[in-house]
Write a structure and sequence with these properties.
With about 900 residues, this protein is α/β, with parallel strands linked by helices. It contains 28 helices and 26 strands.
Length: about 900
């Protein structure tokens, strides 16, 4: 339809919609937000609301649906969850004062990364908006700039990554960050774009190149922070980071055009080396934040440790978990604080009790600064700061330096509390439009209007009594409604008694409504006072909100302090409840754990309880631990994978500044924790399980240092037995070799042939999962002991898992045949076939001819590179012999 054929309202709609083609436009019409055309069709389906039409009688009716304006937030939340964005178009002038069509503008674009509304945010999760930009550096290198901003709290920081690992470093940082939305230049290079794409659940939003222009970005940030240079924020030389940060501010100004961004007061720079770099695979494999089972959070380290009582504390705890510390001083400072709070029960209980009264003041202060705080938000802020004096006194009574330093820089925010206390009524409504917000005595004009409003009702009652007496009509009533205002209602049986000065206003079935000059004058006075009262209250509330916004930096600083206090008290509470101990931290190379436990598995309802185990790793004779034996033991989870993970989690918990599940623990600092456990594929990227395994292993070998902790579980199982053994052997030798890596490593494997490494290299030790055999049964003792296993007990584990007896019996027959063939092969020499002349069972698989070539390789005398080259030759040979 041509715009000229549309009504003025629909022309206005079409004009505004053109600027927001990718969003669903909520178009304010009276008390509703209405949607038209394709927006209406899609929204009605996603929101399960009725689809109707505008101009039904015309030849081209317009599809229409709508939602009440006061309930819009809930509908917007559903559309955001469905992956859509919403443009909110409001009436920006009073309809009563408008000349012609009411002026409308988009006042906000709702996107996942720009939310501040409490109803749209998860209290315990940060809501980061990220920006990524990059440049290519020869040869085949990149430099990447990353900026991250949580608009709901004001947290804003930048980082840069360079070199061959830049894309991987970006991907790891995004895995820790879990942004809800990522903006980037439309021309972003494929490797960097792929790193962004790997973050599940994030909305990717391409922007024009100008948004990332270096000069424009710097100008935008200088203007935002009201400074003449960014060097004071430590940003010198971070050109790409500044470009990304400037793009974020520009994006926010476009999506929140009417909002103040005054709470964004500066940047923080994240540099490598400030905290432990955990890659995405390690975060996933150790199940730190989410369990791979339905993306659950209840069977994770975060779930076990999180006994925080504020939303701010819960978010900070998650950040501490994915960003363990690297320096001893801050680690020991946290441990001292946790230790004291654990020992002094009265202080810990008092702090946690007081913190329960604290709302999310980081997000409250942001909403105040954005001009979006409601009267109830201000009351929540007052309630929260009311407990600050008590918390300061508790922190000051402690001996731990971290707690005493916190108390020394404490701000009770007494002026903030007093301002709200003196101005806002304790039962103020949610909406500022409803009135009843400001206390009496705050403003003389408001008090006068309220007096008129109260007296007006008395005046109306007096007039009603006088009119009944004057007319003799006992049923006469003076009433009020929003449409007709005040009126006198008289039943039809009494119409003959109506005085001549009564003017008819409305006719009903059983009554007539009238107005008199006196009632009209009274109406103007009373209703005018009510409207003026509400308008003045809104004005006064806005002034109070602006006054509070000036204190945003102070409120945010105290919010951050309260979050730290909450996390420290939570770690102490968890340590007391779960029997954790303080780790002895140093810069040595030893990791010695006595009776260590898996913090998550031990909380499960295990039939026989959790059996603790010892661990000794160092940089000398216990550098590489080869762990063989069964991979699991039924419901008790006593396998190698559990043991590997528990060691990593204990080290991580220690370096985040928490107590650990053990009888004692001595932890020499590690710079990174690497894990390669579990089996998964990446079909979207065209990667098989084995390819994912090899890619993650390559990342470890290329990134680990002698100060790292490496956990490898079943390397090589995604390919043939001999290929897998060759790779596993070569990887283990490479890691234990100090000229290559020399890191503290735990290597779980079902290739028990690898136990021979301990005889060849002085830094390798063998450990196994102890078992006790009784006739046909095997008892898994769930204890890690020194020594190697000569088999993996896979059939016994399969029986415990519930495989049918027929399958178990057949597996035993096949295993017996294979073991017999192997034994006779050893006696006959390398030229004999493994199965064909020795196996009477024709159903067993015949060996491939290339196996004989593999058997003739003296694998253990080869270097890792020679082994890999020989493997490549065999693969090429295999392709020629068997092209299918």
């Amino acid at each position: 339809m041509n715009d000229a054929d549309l009504s003025p309202l629909m022309r206005q709609y079409r004009e505004i919609k053109r600027a927001y083609e990718g969003a669903i436009l909520f178009f304010r019409v009276g008390d509703f937000y209405e949607m038209f055309y394709e927006d209406a069709e899609e929204a009605s389906r996603l929101l399960s609301i009725a689809l109707t039409s505008r101009d039904k009688s015309s030849a081209t009716p317009v599809p229409l649906c709508g939602v009440p304006y006061h309930a819009a937030t809930g509908y917007i939340a559903k559309l955001l969850k469905a992956g859509r964005t919403v443009a909110l178009c409001d009436q920006v002038e009073d309809p009563k004062l408008a000349k012609g069509l009411v002026r409308r503008e988009v006042v906000r674009l709702y996107t996942p990364g720009t939310l501040t509304d409490a109803e749209l945010l998860r209290p315990t999760e940060s809501n980061f908006l990220a920006a990524v930009t990059a440049v290519s550096l020869p040869p085949d290198r990149s430099a990447v700039g990353l900026a991250a901003l949580d608009l709901s709290t004001g947290e804003f920081w930048v980082a840069e990554f360079t070199g061959e690992q830049a894309a991987h470093d970006l991907q790891d940082e995004l895995a820790r960050l879990e942004p809800k939305e990522v903006i980037h230049p439309a021309s972003l290079a494929n490797p960097i774009r792929a790193a962004c794409t790997c973050i599940g659940g994030a909305r990717l939003c391409a922007q024009d190149a100008f948004s990332f222009d270096a000069r424009e970005a710097e100008r935008t940030l200088l203007e935002q922070f009201r400074v003449t240079s960014l060097e004071g924020f430590g940003c010198a030389g971070l050109t790409l980071g500044i470009q990304a940060a400037g793009a974020l501010v520009r994006y926010l100004r476009e999506t929140r055009p009417t909002a103040s961004l005054a709470h964004l007061r500066g940047l923080r720079v994240r540099r490598s080396g400030e905290d432990m770099h955990l890659d995405g695979a390690t975060i996933r494999n150790l199940e730190l934040i989410r369990s791979p089972v339905e993306n659950r959070r209840d069977a994770t380290l975060l779930a076990v440790l999180d006994r925080t009582v504020t939303a701010m504390g819960s978010r900070l705890l998650k950040d501490w978990i994915v960003r363990p510390l690297l320096r001893l001083d801050p680690i020991r400072a946290r441990l001292d604080a946790v230790s004291e709070l654990l020992q002094i029960l009265e202080t810990r209980v008092a702090i946690r009790t007081a913190l329960r009264s604290v709302q999310d003041i980081l997000r409250l202060s942001s909403r105040v600064s954005l001009g979006a705080a409601s009267p109830r938000d201000l009351l929540a802020l007052k309630q929260s700061v009311a407990v600050l004096p008590e918390l300061r006194a508790r922190a000051a009574s402690c001996r731990a330096p971290l707690l005493r330093e916190m108390a020394a820089s404490w701000d009770n925010l007494a002026d903030v509390h007093d301002l709200i206390e003196k101005t806002i009524l304790p039962d103020a409504p949610v909406s500022v439009r409803d009135g009843g917000i400001i206390r009496e005595g705050h403003d003389a004009t408001l008090d006068e209007l309220r007096t008129i409003g109260r007296d007006g009702k008395h005046w109306i009652a007096q007039m009603e009594a006088r009119e009944r007496e004057r007319t003799g009509i006992e049923s006469l009533k003076i009433r009020f409604n929003q449409v007709f205002g005040y009126y006198i209602e008289i039943t039809k049986t009494n119409l003959a008694k109506v005085p001549s000065d009564y003017g008819r206003k409305q006719t009903l079935a059983n009554a007539e409504r009238f107005i008199t000059p006196e009632l009209k004058e009274l109406e103007d006075k009373v209703t005018g006072a009510d409207l003026k009262q509400k308008a003045l209250e809104q004005e006064l509330f806005e002034r109070i909100r602006v006054q509070l916004a000036r204190e945003t930096a102070r409120v945010q600083a105290m919010g951050a302090a309260l979050a730290v206090l909450d996390v420290l008290a939570s770690l102490a509470e968890t340590a007391g409840l779960n029997g954790y101990v303080r780790p002895d931290m140093d810069e040595g190379g030893e990791i010695r754990i006595s009776d260590g436990r898996h913090p998550v598995v031990e909380r499960l309802d295990l039939p026989q309880g959790f059996v603790p185990n010892d661990t000794l790793l160092d940089l000398e004779t216990n550098r590489l631990l080869i762990l063989t034996g069964p991979n699991m033991a039924g419901p008790n989870m006593a396998g190698k994978s559990t043991y590997l993970r528990q060691v990593a989690l204990i080290v991580l918990m220690a370096q985040m500044g928490g107590f650990v599940p053990a009888r004692s623990a001595r932890i020499g600092l590690v710079d990174r924790i690497f894990t390669r456990v579990g089996a998964s594929d990446n079909l979207a990227a065209g990667q098989s399980t084995f390819m994912v395994e090899m890619t993650e292993t390559a990342q470890i070998l290329n990134s680990a240092t002698a100060r790292s902790l490496i956990l490898l579980d079943e390397i090589g199982r995604g390919t043939s037995t001999y290929d897998g053994l060759s790779i596993a052997w070569a990887v283990a030798e490479y890691i234990q070799d100090r000229s290559h890596v020399g890191a503290r490593t735990m290597f779980a494997t079902h290739y028990h042939e690898m136990t021979e490494l301990a005889d060849r290299h002085p830094g390798v030790k063998n450990y196994t999962v102890a078992v006790k055999e009784q006739n046909e049964d095997v008892l898994f003792l769930r204890k890690i002991v020194e020594g190697g296993a000569d088999r993996s007990y896979g059939i016994h584990v399969a029986r415990l898992a519930g495989l049918p007896p027929a399958v178990i019996n057949r597996a035993k027959e096949v295993l017996a045949q294979l073991e017999q063939a192997s034994d006779q092969q050893t006696q006959l020499g390398p030229q004999s076939s493994v199965l064909s002349p020795l196996s009477p069972d024709p159903s067993l698989p015949a060996p491939h001819p290339i196996i004989e070539e593999v058997r003739q390789i003296d694998l253990f005398s080869m270097t890792p590179l020679e082994a890999m080259n020989r493997l490549a030759e065999l693969q090429r040979s295999l392709d020629k012999k068997d092209p299918q």
